[in-house]
Amino acid sequence: MADVLTSQAPAAATTREATRALVGLRRALARNAQGGTGTVLTLRVLGLGLAVGTLLLGLVRFDDPSRSVDLLAALLLGWLLGWVMGPVVVRGAGVGLRPEWFALLPMPPRRLAAGLLAAALVGFAPAATLVAFAALPLAAARLGLLPLLVAVPATLLELVLVVALSRVVVAALTVALSARGGQELGGLLMAVVIAIASGGWSLAAVVGQQLAAGPPPALSTALRVLPSGWAPVAVAAADRSEWPLALGALLGLAVLSGLLLAAWARLLPATMRKPGGRRTTRSRTGPVAGPPAGWRRLPPATPTGAVVVKELHGWRRDPGRTLLLLLALLVAGLNLAVPAVAFGAPGALPWVGVAAALIVAMGAANVYGDDGTALWLTRMVPGSEGADVRGRQAAWLLVVAPALVVLTVALTTLSGQGGAWPFLLAALPAVLGGTAGLMVWVSVTMPVRQKDPHRRSGPFDTGDDPNATGALVGRQYLMLLLAALVAVPGCTLVLLGAVRHQPVLQAAGVLAGTATGVLLCWWGGRLAARRLTDRGAELMDLFLVGPPATTRGDHAGPPRAPEVQLPGWKSAAVGVLWTVGIVCVVPQGLVPIGFNLFGVDPQVRVWFAARYLPQQLQVPVAAGFIVAGALAMWWAYSIGRGHAGRR
């Protein structure tokens, strides 16, 4: 193949041969793959379901043809955003042939980009996208032969456009993450993309409602002006015999795809530079900037104060930490603030801060694992474990608590929901204090080995080990559950006081929530310091050489049996069960209950099944969804445990 890719034949023939070779390589890789993992199979099942759903939605008929154009443009926009966000949210998803594999071949970037783009159109994801985009030719077939003839090339050009845009975004992020400033910018973009992916249901619900009721002119214009709407516009123009507009839309898709291909060709040399090696950073001259002067004066001159200064310095210098807080604010805002404003439910606004605190708690599940082998600095100073734990707790509270408290106070005051104050005063201190204690305890009790900070390519780079990634996700969900349970005692007392109209009981709930947070912060830090003292050497071995299964016998004790992965179909079943469980618990269970508690308009139903039932049945049915989701997740857990027990 190298001879084909580097031949000195005429340019046109060489490009065709190189493209044919790359497409053949992509097919060979797909054909000889040893079966997908559970995550891949789950994503394929979900992707095919979304494609079929898009195809069926595209067949909906409207009396006004312009509304069909708006619906198709909205569906294509959703798929375009999915192609852009997919490789960012699921790192490496759908990349196919990686450009760095061909870094040593003397091939012009334009020829390589053209071949890689053709190869990127081969595979399951493009096929599923093509099934979804087939809604456009099917809708055009109802209009006549000429619109159908326009719809076919428009569909293919739209597919090329979304794939090319996805590759350009991935290449641009790869280049941006090669520098310090680019890491922060790229991490910010990742945080925004992840927030949109997790909270985009609220935006999709608003757009869906407006499309069902007749979109306003501004939304209709925006959907048609965006490139994802040019294909439906071309079909509609062909139906009206407006051929300049139809041909102009098709030409625009072709030109934009060509520009994206040229942009990708310009980015390829930078993405292929130093394949597999460490990126070099520019050396600094002069002293390293420390934390702000106010931070230096804040802690006392003690070992704990020194750790606080070190941690605050880390919060300032490590983009992953600050982006975690930003990500929590974005996700909580999109999942609570946007629906509260869109659906007229101001009662949800005060809880944005608490929701953000729970998300930040997820990111704090592996504070020692995130630092990697830097633990040796603590191990070299005997007796410093307690100061290290307390300093981490204090620094975390100094950074996280003020932002969330200010956010909670501001949104509660602006929304006019004064009745939420007792609940917030019981929940927020409990979650913040409880997280400060639980995060260090969970991190030293169930640590997950991660890349050392200096070896990471970006703020969200945690390594290439899928087992470590899965374990980290498990710890994060555990922290989410524990942090949420911490707020239950205080909020329960406040709720009983509100029901019985007893302010004293509500005050007791506030005190109970605060006391729970303080107690867990002290107790969790105490247990973490003790375990760090007793088992610090084992933690150092884990961070340095990996889990016991990969270490030598003289360090790890008795060797353990190697991990056996689930078969493909079992992995897919586990992934589907987890997905179904989360969907049943959160959007079909907790969200409808929250809508009822916050007094959301009963006409706001969207895709929440319980909202379509009579008022008296909505909460019981939503609770049933929660139970069903919990059973699905328990079933998925049981499949994995049962397979491990039979190996």
List the total number of helices.
26
The biggest sheet, with number of strands, parallel, antiparallel or mixed sense and barrel status, is: none
Estimate percent helicity.
over 70%
The Cα radius of gyration reads: 27 Å
Kindly summarize this structure in a few lines.
With 647 residues, the protein is mainly α. The protein has helices at 2-5, 11-31, 38-57, 65-89, 109-120, 124-133, 135-141, 145-176, 180-213, 217-225, 230-239, 243-271, 293-297, 303-317, 319-342, 352-363, 367-371, 375-379, 385-415, 421-445, 466-486, 488-500, 503-545, 553-556, 568-597, 615-646.
Name some characteristics of this structure:
647 residues, mainly alpha
Question: What this model shows, in words?
Answer:
The chain is an all-alpha fold. The chain has helices at residues 2-5, 11-31, 38-57, 65-89, 109-120, 124-133, 135-141, 145-176, 180-213, 217-225, 230-239, 243-271, 293-297, 303-317, 319-342, 352-363, 367-371, 375-379, 385-415, 421-445, 466-486, 488-500, 503-545, 553-556, 568-597, 615-646. The model is unreliable at 274-291 and 550-564 (pLDDT under 50).
Write the layout of secondary structure elements.
Elements: H1 2-5, H2 11-31, H3 38-57, H4 65-89, H5 109-120, H6 124-133, H7 135-141, H8 145-176, H9 180-213, H10 217-225, H11 230-239, H12 243-271, H13 293-297, H14 303-317, H15 319-342, H16 352-363, H17 367-371, H18 375-379, H19 385-415, H20 421-445, H21 466-486, H22 488-500, H23 503-545, H24 553-556, H25 568-597, H26 615-646
Helix pairs in contact: 2-5, 3-6, 3-25, 4-8, 4-9, 4-11, 5-12, 6-8, 7-8, 8-9, 8-11, 8-12, 9-15, 11-12, 14-15, 14-19, 15-16, 16-19, 16-20, 16-21, 19-20, 19-23, 20-21, 20-22, 20-23, 22-23, 25-26
